[in-house]
C-alpha cells in the first residue's frame, strides 16, 4: 500500500522529510502540502512533489480524502492544533518536536489519543533511531553494568537572533531529555542549571553556554552541556559511566586524513547531515505503521514527558544552581 502523505510546514525539516518520502523511502507519496508561506509550499511542489495539491490551511489538508496520514513540520506553537485535528480525523500523524510548547498542550494530545483508543501519533525524536544511539543502548544494557552517570554535550555552530535562553531547553535539550529516558529506561526527578560566563558570540537575549544536570529515579546523574555558539561544528557527545565500564556514542563516520603534518577528521556542521540516517529510519517506521492505520516509535506520552521535563529545566534556568523537582502523572495503559 502507498500511504498518501500531507505535509504541514514546508520549511527546513518539512522540505527534507518531503524529499525523503518522495525520493528515498518506500511506501509513501506526498499528495498534499500546506504552509502559511504559500511560496514555500509551491517551491516544494515544484522541486520535490509535483503531484501534490496545495492547501491554504493545515485543517483543510487533514480533512482531504487524498491524505491518509499527516506530517506536522510547522513551528512548534502550531503543532498542538494540527495533531488534535489529525487525531479527530482518525489519521496517523508524525509530529516534529516539540509535540506541544506547553505540558498542558501535550497532555491534551495524550487525552485525545487515549479517547481515540489507539496510537495515532509519532513524535519526531529521531535519535532513538540513530545507529550510534541504538548501539550505545545495547552496550549499556549488555556490558557497562548499571549506569551511574552520563556526560553529554549538544553543540550547534550558531543560532539566529530569535533563539533565546529558554529555547536551549525547548528546542535543543529536548532531544537529550527524550533520548536519555529511552537509553536508561528511567524518568527524571530533578533538574538544575548552571551558567558559566557567557560566550562572546552569544547575543543579548541568550545566555550561552549552559550546563543542565538531571537526576533520575534510579539515581543516575546526567550533565549536558548546551553550547549553541560553539562555532566549530554540530557536535553531539554522550558517554555513559556504568558499574563495570564506560560506553561512548560513536563519532559519525568520517575519512581520516594525514595532510599538512596534521591528522584530520571532518566535523559535520548541520543537524540534517548528522542524523540523516535516523530521520530516514524514523519516517520509514512511520510509513509502515501508517499503512496499518496506526503509529509506532516515540509516543504522545514521550512528548508529554519531554514537555514536563522541559518546563522544569526552564524553571531551573530561572533559579540558577537550585534543584527543581520533577513529578509525572500515572502513565495511561495505551502507552504501557
Ligand atoms: N527533529 C529534529 O532534529 C528537528 C526538528 N525541528 C522541528 O521542526 C519544526 C520546524 O522547524 P524548521 O523546519 O527548522 O523551521 P522553519 O522555520 O524552517 O520551517 C517551518 C515552516 O512552518 C511554516 N509554518 C509556520 N506556521 C504555520 C502554520 N500555522 N501552518 C502551516 N505552516 C506554518 C513556516 O512558514 C515555515 O515554512 C520545529 O518544531 C522544530 O523544532 C527542526 C529541526 C530539526
Ligand atoms: O531539532 C533541532 C533544532 O531545532 C535545534 O535548534 C538544534 O539544536 C537541534 O540539534 C536540532 O536537532
UniProtKB/TrEMBL annotation:
Domain Gfo/Idh/MocA-like oxidoreductase C-terminal, chain residue ranges per copy: 144-318
Reactions mediated catalytically: myo-inositol + NAD(+) = scyllo-inosose + NADH + H(+)
Start and end residues of each Gfo/Idh/MocA-like oxidoreductase N-terminal domain: 3-125
Listed Gene3D superfamilies: Dihydrodipicolinate Reductase, domain 2, NAD(P)-binding Rossmann-like Domain
Pfam families: GFO_IDH_MocA, GFO_IDH_MocA_C
Regions annotated as coiled coil: none
Oxidoreductase as UniProt keyword: yes
EC number: 1.1.1.18
InterPro entries: Gfo-Idh-MocA_inositol_DH, Gfo/Idh/MocA-like_OxRdtase_C, Gfo/Idh/MocA-like_OxRdtase_N, MI/DCI_dehydrogenase, NAD(P)-bd_dom_sf
Record text on subunit structure and interactions: Homotetramer.
Protein name (record): Inositol 2-dehydrogenase
The organism of origin for this protein: Rhodobacter viridis
Source lineage: Bacteria, Pseudomonadati, Pseudomonadota, Alphaproteobacteria, Rhodobacterales
Gene: iolG
Amino acid at each position: 500500500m502507498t500511504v498518501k502523505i500531507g505535509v504541514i510546514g514546508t520549511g527546513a525539516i518539512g522540505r527534507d522529510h518531503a524529499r525523503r518520502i518522495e525520493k528515498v523511502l518506500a511506501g509513501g507519496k506526498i499528495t498534499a502540502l500546506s504552509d502559511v508561506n504559500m511560496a514555500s509550499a509551491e517551491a516544494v511542489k515544484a522541486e520535490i512533489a509535483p503531484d501534490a495539491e496545495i492547501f491554504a490551511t493545515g485543517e483543510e489538508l487533514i480533512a482531504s480524502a487524498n491524505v491518509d496520514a499527516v506530517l506536522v513540520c510547522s513551528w512548534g506553537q502550531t503543532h498542538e492544533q494540527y495533531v488534535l485535528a489529525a487525531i479527530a480525523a482518525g489519521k496517523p500523524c508524525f509530529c516534529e518536536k516539540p509535540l506541544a510548547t506547553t505540558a498542558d498542550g501535550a497532555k491534551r494530545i495524550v487525552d485525545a489519543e487515549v479517547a481515540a483508543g489507539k496510537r495515532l501519533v509519532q513524535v519526531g525524536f529521531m535519535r532513538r533511531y540513530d545507529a550510534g544511539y541504538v548501539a550505545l543502548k545495547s552496550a549499556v544494557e549488555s556490558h557497562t553494568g548499571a549506569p551511574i552517570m552520563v556526560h553529554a554535550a549538544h553543540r550547534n555552530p550558531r543560532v539566529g537572533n530569535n533563539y533565546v535562553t529558554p529555547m536551549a531547553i525547548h528546542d535543543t535539550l529536548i532531544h537529550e531529555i527524550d533520548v536519555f529516558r529511552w537509553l536508561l529506561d528511567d524518568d527524571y526527578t530533578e533538574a538544575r542549571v548552571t551558567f558559566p560566563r557567557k560566550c562572546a558570540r552569544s547575543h543579548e537575549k541568550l545566555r550561552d553556554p549552559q550546563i543542565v544536570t538531571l537526576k533520575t529515579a534510579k539515581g543516575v546523574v546526567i550533565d549536558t552541556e548546551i553550547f549553541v555558539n560553539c562555532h566549530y561544528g554540530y557536535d553531539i557527545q554522550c558517554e555513559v559511566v556504568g558499574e563495570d565500564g564506560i560506553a561512548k556514542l560513536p563519532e559519525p563516520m568520517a575519512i581520516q586524513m594525514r595532510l599538512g603534518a596534521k591528522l584530520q577528521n571532518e566535523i559535520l556542521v548541520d543537524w540534517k547531515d548528522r542524523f540523516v540516517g535516523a530521520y530516514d529510519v524514523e519516517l520509514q517506521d512511520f510509513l509502515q505503521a501508517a499503512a496499518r492505520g496506526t503509529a509506532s516509535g516515540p509516543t504522545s506520552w514521550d512528548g508529554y514527558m519531554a514537555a514536563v521535563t522541559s518546563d522544569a529545566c526552564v524553571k531551573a534556568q530561572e533559579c540558577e544552581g537550585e534543584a527543581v523537582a520533577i513529578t509525572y502523572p500515572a502513565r495511561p495503559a495505551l502507552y504501557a
